[in-house]
Structure formats: C-alpha cells, structure tokens
Amino acid sequence: MTEPIPNATQVVRFAIEFLTPYVAGDTDEKRAQAGEYIAQRLSGPDALDPVHVIRGQLYLNELLLLALAKAHGAQPEGYRAWAGEWLRKGSPQLPE
CA 45, CA 3: separation in Å to the nearest integer? Predict the structure, then answer.
C-alpha cells in the first residue's frame, strides 16, 4: 500500500523535528548527535522520504525568511523581494 503524501503542515513538522536538536546543540558533539539522529530518521524500515523532508525544510525556511523580512520593516507586498535580496547578499559571505 502506498503511503499518503504528507501535507505542508506535516512536512514542516519533519523540518522542525530535525532543526530543533541541531539548533539546541551547543557543542560539536551535540550537533553530531543531532546529525546521527537525522541520519537514522532518513534510513531504515521506517525512514522518512527525503523529498518530504526537503519540502519541509523549504517551507520552514520560507516562513522564517518572511518573518525576518517583517521584523526588518519590510511591507507585506515586499516580503519576498526582501527575502530574495537577503539570500543574494548572504550567499557570497558564506565560508568556503
């Protein structure tokens, strides 16, 4: 039997499930443990479909970026433009 495709709320919960322990990790060891947990959830007999996990990460990132745009004073009609500009500016500044 084919599993149902999760809706947006469900896939965002996958994203939160993975992001929460990673962000809470205040040491390299704890972040590594979070990574191991994520790897376990993506493998094995009850593994989450990585496509759904990626969808969840994208949805969650979109929500966070739009909230950041709002917090920085962008007007609702300009949230997406502000977010796109923020991404363009930030990308070259990432370490190699």
Answer: 13
Angle 26-32-38 from CA coordinates, rounded to 5°: 110
Closest by CA position to 42, among listed 29, 24, 57: 57
Cα 89 from Cα 69, distance rounded (Å): 14
Task: State pLDDT tens for residues 46-78.
Answer: 899 999 999 999 999 999 999 999 999 999 999
CB atoms within 10 A of CB 61: 14
Q: Measured between alpha carbons, how far is 55 from 17 in angstroms, rounded to an integer?
A: 13
Output the CA torsion 81→83→89→95 (10° steps): -160
Residue 44 backbone class (left: φ over 0; alpha: ψ -120 to 50; beta: rest):
left
Residues contacting 69, CB < 8 A, separation 6+ = 78, 79, 80, 82, 83, 86
More confident residue, 92 or 82: 82
